[in-house]
From TrEMBL:
Any one of the GO BP annotations: tRNA nucleoside ribose methylation
Keyword Transmembrane: no
Catalytic activities: cytidine(4) in tRNA(Pro) + S-adenosyl-L-methionine = 2'-O-methylcytidine(4) in tRNA(Pro) + S-adenosyl-L-homocysteine + H(+); adenosine(4) in tRNA(His) + S-adenosyl-L-methionine = 2'-O-methyladenosine(4) in tRNA(His) + S-adenosyl-L-homocysteine + H(+); cytidine(4) in tRNA(Gly)(GCC) + S-adenosyl-L-methionine = 2'-O-methylcytidine(4) in tRNA(Gly)(GCC) + S-adenosyl-L-homocysteine + H(+)
Keywords annotated in UniProt: Metal-binding, Methyltransferase, S-adenosyl-L-methionine, Transferase, tRNA processing, Zinc, Zinc-finger
Pfam families assigned: TRM13 (PF05206), zf-TRM13_CCCH (PF11722), zf-U11-48K (PF05253)
Source superkingdom: Eukaryota
EC number(s) given by UniProt: 2.1.1.225
Record domain CHHC U11-48K-type: where: 55-82
Keyword ATP-binding: no
Gene: KNAG0A01350
Protein name as it appears in the record: tRNA:m(4)X modification enzyme TRM13
InterPro entries per the UniProt record, alphabetical: Methyltransferase_TRM13, Trm13, TRM13/UPF0224_CHHC_Znf_dom, Znf_CCCH-type_TRM13
Functional summary from the UniProt entry: tRNA methylase which 2'-O-methylates cytidine(4) in tRNA(Pro) and tRNA(Gly)(GCC), and adenosine(4) in tRNA(His).
Family of the protein in this entry: Belongs to the methyltransferase TRM13 family.
Length: 422
């Protein structure tokens, strides 16, 4: 295909300068705009090596590139740089205040020695048994009556209803509470917590909403609107904080709060560990913590450095060494890296027609059935969750902590919540 020549005009509606590169695979000319004096747009200048300059990854965020000769100027105005400095000077900000203790220096994934996977599977076979926790799915009648009939996909509503009913029974109305939702996203969960409590008693709770991302179509204003409609004589305070949980200090955000509840629906991986540290380091939360309800997910993005309870796995490894089931000995980081990977096996989908007895290959070319892979995934997830539970019992000021399955696996495979109550 010959390059299509575009007639360049000076100004006017037809004066847009079009990139002269022809994309052979798409059989058409690039539609991007180029600079005057250049044949190609910025993207194709880099790809074709034209112009004598090079685009390089931004050292602050490799997801985007910049002209090499403009790198220094770019670093001062990069959006990633601005986001990283957004909370400088805020009392609730402390860089890396909730990350791990430093026993594992970084979060990089290591290449594992030959035989590591076989050792990990052997350790699980000898040391751990899957415990079938009873399903404790509950339902909030008010939310179910107002939402389920209007939804085509009811799974999220069923999960929210069960978690909220657990909360209502553990923390009945009667106290003015502040709910802190970690990893809140659009704050949909907080909105329905607010509705359920308003329906039970005319005392609207306050909310602190924590998330590091910018979210569209947030529910913050709807929380206030629901309160105005359901309880016209009262109002609640809703505070949103855009911050990574690893840098969050809660006390400055809880001035005047005497009763706190930490909540989250599907808090991903390492964010659960960061949240537990954040709660434990807050004097206001520890002094007035009525409950914690964290529905966990995505353990495959946990990491050995930030995991909340490394001694839990150190003890397991020591028991394996004493019984000579691990030779040469596994390290904590190797074990945790494998377990995090295996957690995804518990939620992996299957191809249509796949059977429990079908064979798959994992790790060091190890063959097992699909059912065995599922079981190892559940074992890994159970271990990570039990370590978190043990830490919470020992470090958070509540008399009762447990892991609950709040919905059936047919509703969600990510159906385990860490629940702490007085």
């Amino acid at each position: 295909m010959e390059h299509k020549r575009v007639k360049l005009e000076e100004g006017g509606a037809g004066g847009r300068l079009r990139c002269q590169h022809v994309m052979e695979q798409k059989k058409r000319q690039c539609a991007m705009t180029r600079r005057a004096g250049s044949k190609y747009c910025l993207e194709h200048l880099s790809l074709l090596g034209a112009g004598g300059v090079e685009r390089v990854p931004c050292p602050l965020d490799p997801k985007h590139t910049v002209w090499e000769h403009q790198l220094r100027a770019h670093l001062r105005k990069c959006n990633t740089f601005k986001a990283a400095r957004r909370n400088d000077g805020e009392k609730f900000y402390k860089l890396d205040g909730n990350i791990g203790s430093g026993l594992v220096p970084d979060t990089r994934v290591e290449s594992l020695p030959d035989g590591t996977w076989r050792q990990v599977l052997q350790l699980l076979d000898c040391s751990v048994k899957v415990r079938a926790s009873p399903i404790r799915q509950k339902a909030n009648e008010y939310l179910d009556s107002t939402r389920l009939e209007t939804l085509e996909n009811r799974k999220h509503a069923e999960q929210q209803s069960s978690l909220i009913q657990h909360l209502l029974e553990a923390c009945p109305p009667g106290r003015h509470r502040t709910f802190v939702e970690f990893g809140c996203g659009r704050a949909e969960f907080s909105r329905y917590v607010n509705q359920a409590y308003l329906h039970a008693a005319p005392d609207p709770p306050d909310f602190v909403l924590v998330d590091r991302s910018s979210n569209r179509m947030k529910f913050d204003t709807k929380i206030a609107k629901d309160t105005e409609e359901m309880c016209p004589s009262a109002s609640n305070k809703v505070t949103r904080v855009k911050i990574d949980i690893k840098d969050l200090q809660m006390d400055p955000l809880l001035e005047g709060a005497h009763h706190c509840v930490a909540i989250s629906k599907h808090l991903c991986g390492v964010a659960t560990d960061l949240t537990l540290r954040c709660i434990a380091s807050s004097e206001r939360m520890r002094g007035g913590l009525d409950a914690v309800c964290i529905a966990m997910c995505c353990r495959h993005v946990c990491n050995a450095r930030d995991y909340i309870n490394p001694p839990f796995f150190d003890k397991l490894l020591q028991e394996a060494r004493d019984s000579e089931t691990s030779d040469p000995p596994l390290t904590y980081k190797q074990l945790f890296q494998c377990l995090a990977k295996m957690c995804s096996w518990a939620t992996s989908g299957r191809r249509p027609g796949a059977q429990d007895t079908d064979m798959v290959t994992v790790g060091d070319a190890i063959e097992m059935t699909l059912k065995q892979r599922d079981q190892y995934g559940l074992l890994s997830r159970q271990l990570i969750d039990e370590g978190s539970l043990q830490w919470a019992r020992e470090n958070l000021p509540n008399s009762r902590a447990e892991l609950i399955k709040y919905v059936d696996s047919s509703v969600s495979l990510e159906n385990v919540a860490l629940f702490l109550t007085k």
